[in-house]
Amino acid sequence: MGRAPCCDKANVKKGPWSPEEDAKLKAYIEQYGTGGNWIALPQKIGLKRCGKSCRLRWLNYLRPNIKHGGFSEEEDNIICSLYISIGSRWSIIAAQLPGRTDNDIKNYWNTKLKKKLLGRRKQSSNIHRLSNQDPNDPHQPTGSDDNQLSQGLSNSAMERLQLHMQLQSLQNPFSFYNNPALWPKIHPLQEKMIQNMQASNGNPNLLMQPLLPPNPQPANEQSTVHQQDYPEISNTKGLEGLDNCLDGISASDGSVPFGNGDNLMDSTSTDAAVQPGSSFQGELDVFLNHKSSTTGGYPQEDQMVNQLDCFRDINGSKDSSIWWPTDFDAKSASSNSWDSTSVLQSNGMFQDFELGYPM
DNA sequence: AAGCTTTACAACCGCGCATCT
DNA sequence: TAGATGCGCGGTTGTAAAGCT
């Protein structure tokens, strides 16, 4: 079953494009355009390529005015701030960076920026942990409830959470993470998972701990999860709420990654997406350029990385996208990658965003 | 110098959504 | 209105180059 392939796979060439193919495709599109039908395009040109492949090649490589590599510090900042705020919506991020493609940004993030921000230790510790996994080891996770809970947690959400917390905890003692009054209500499933993590880890200074608001319930009720109270959250999707939680943090903790929503809404250029001189800009600078003023580094990092490891997806579950306002037309944003008008301002995105996730 | 590992980037794949018929 | 088709997106994979031992 499944969907029919978009082209005849057997008669379609795959792999790197030759200069001749590039020339054919570029010449045709420059002369005739795409004709609004990528699937038919390769046949018209005489290319043994899938239409989708042609489209990708054109959009990511052959299209005029494309910049490759050499991301500026400002671009780094924009990418980071947008990623923290909206996650892996690469097309939207790309729309804020003229000349950049979503694929380029995605690659840049995965290979450089992420490591730059989160540190390299995470990856190595992950590899170490995986390489040491013994399926017969009873002390290692199996198919427990905790794992099932963890399965719903996205890497994207965790990265965003981690990045945001790092930024917040750096220099601002009054930031969200140090102010319980600002903490959002957390879903009991999430709380239970975090408690389990704390219990298994034995470390009260768990990364996630700041997310836990003081629980007013009697002790004997704290671990009781009433699924019916949260009908929208299934077992497998329970942790998507963390995405919402994180987005709520980004949107309304008073120290929004963009400085504040108004800055963005009022911005008329991509430069305004990250206000130079803003506190967030400064925080980003610290991370991007290692300008740590007093600590000379990030002593929390190793601990945070270790703590995060127990969150890592076991089954490669995908990031949820439920946080995004459903009426936001992401496609219309992404399809205009070359429009310098900020998609964020034109769609009132952050207004919707804030309205959708009150605290 | 050889072999191995890591990095960077291009390309592919599957799926959701919008549009068309 | 339902099915078919195409587009666009995000995740993942493949591979050449660079770096390391």
UniProtKB/TrEMBL annotation:
HTH myb-type domain boundaries: 9-62, 63-117
Single GO term (MF): DNA binding
SMART domains according to UniProt: SANT (SM00717)
Classification via SUPFAM superfamilies: Homeodomain-like (SSF46689)
Source taxon at top rank: Eukaryota
Polar residues: bias regions: 124-151
GO cellular component: nucleus
UniProt keyword annotations, A-Z: DNA-binding, Nucleus, Repeat, Transcription, Transcription regulation
Domain Myb-like: 9-62, 63-113
InterPro entries: Homeodomain-like_sf, Myb_dom, SANT/Myb
Subcellular location per the Swiss-Prot or TrEMBL entry: Nucleus
Region Disordered: start-end pairs: 119-151
Protein name per Swiss-Prot or TrEMBL: Uncharacterized protein
Organism: Gossypium darwinii (Darwin's cotton)
